[in-house]
UniProtKB/TrEMBL annotation:
It comes from Exidia glandulosa HHB12029. Keywords: Signal. Residues 1-20 form the signal peptide. Residues 486-510, 537-549, 556-576 have a biased composition (Polar residues). This is Mutanase. Pfam families: Glyco_hydro_71 (PF03659).
Amino acid sequence: MRVPRSVLSALLLAAGPVLSLPTHANRTLSTRQSSSDRLVFAHFMIGIVSDRHSASDYDDDMRRAKAIGIDAFALNIGTDDYTETQLNYAYDSAANNDMKVFISFDFNWYHPTSDAGRVGQLVNQYGSKASQLKVDGKVFVSSFAGDGLDVDAVRSSAGMDLFVAPNFHPGQGDFSKVDAAFNWMGWPSDGNNKAPKPGGPVVSVQDGDNAYISALGGKPYMAAVSPWFFTHFGAEVPYSKNWVFPGDTLWYDRWNQILDLKPNFVEIVTWNDYGESHYIGPLSSPHTDDGGSKWVNDMPHGGWLDMAIPYIKAYKAGSNDVSQFVDEDKIIYWYRRTPKDVNCDSTDTTMGSADNSTGNYFMGRPDGFDIMSDSVFVVPLLKEAGTVVVNSGGVEYTHDAAAGASVFSVDMNVGTQAFALKRGGQEVLSDTSLMPITSECPCGIYNFNAYVGTVPASPIDSLQPDGLSGFSKGLKASCDAQPTLVTGQAPQTQAPTSTVGSDSAPGTTQAPASSTEDSEPSSTEAPSSTDIPTLTPVPTDTCSTTVGSDNGGNAPETTQAPVSSTEDSQPSSTEAPSSTDIPTPTPIPTDTCSSPAKRSEEKAKRTLVHWGRFRVEYEI
């Protein structure tokens, strides 16, 4: 049985095109392999790529990662019979694409003491390959979990100099034996492998940073950066688990913390773990499916990859100022497909009994759902200041954004989501998302994954047949196992029923600009809290809606404004449309849409809590 990776990590932590990079980052990787340099890795799951048949099947992943500044893939391996075949392909592809890789042993499968010799032998087998990452001239090796690993036995069995950077936990692993350590926990938790609860204890990501830095006593630290964490497996698999950790603006917040912290290494969690929803790699990357495609299909995350580009540049340059690394105007946005009060109990895949030996199975809505915000999150990456306009289900919001990177959120409204950038009253960029927000359960389930989009729009990214092979596992609702997003077929943009003006910057979370960006402060103190502005729509009587009940109740239906009658046409082109290619059709008259008045009513019953840069609403 596969034990969820975050289980061990959180519990043990509680117990104790080619980019133009800055001068520092333009050196070849071979000349930067020093523990004093800043390197970026991405966690890559070998266990789900048994359908790859040659090194060329890894080429696209290698090229994409290299192009945005990722230095190496951490190849997470278990003990599957295809592991070494896939490792050979990955190492060969990395060599062919001037990338680096290293093995990350998953101790859900290996035993820390009895398998130490086996671990060392595998390191020896691949350590001399051209694409093996070396730091300080030593073969780099890492892990997921592994407290209690006999590091001396690993070194002896490997028979070569190693740079050991495992996912040991403060108070559990022996930090005197390692060269560095990796902190997997990139999400706030309650300290017991669960999402924080309103009014309950919170272990922030910065708390984890501080614990590791203290335990390492000056040795290099590998910090995690992750955008999301949602999984929703029921009885259809033996490792049932159903949770969501605080996401919202985590990806933006964490990168700004990284610029402040300046750790030796950063590991993105993950490139391709689709079942846990923290993937930033493409859906089209070849992989098999254990049923996670139910919440992954039509849910690309490539916009998060785009957002990371200037941050990776700034991190490698030792800068706190991301604005100088923004090369083009772009809007990154993300949101969930449904408000959290939509009721899916009658058709959801987790509404039956399942194995709960790990304590991570919850029926219905995922554990942690109540602290997620019903919002659309927006990060403008701007070369110069501009006004960002968001039309969420017919409610139009305007927000003045500064040059560089900033973040804001608006209330989620059922309907089409459209975005634009204006300067001097003229539209510079615009696009309509292919994914509307609805009051219907997608494929009958509670889907708390994020849909991530960009303006200008990126090409369509779809799961391949192998990535949909387990789609129907456990499904109770009728749903086709195929991608549905079509270029040029965005839903009809709803005419605004109300408009919300910008407060012109005060309170906006803005990535810091620093005139001393090249300095190297030694402090690892977590950044101070900054509130994220939420623009609230003005009440309007032109719309009405009903809100679903909590788990176990009967949710009244919410009426969605009709979409264009021409939406079923299927253009053959798959080329990403330019912002001027997609006309805004005249809306069909309707008397129903998401009600800002109702949402304002809801907000009066909520309390706002902040920790670090995180913002949580909960009902009182």
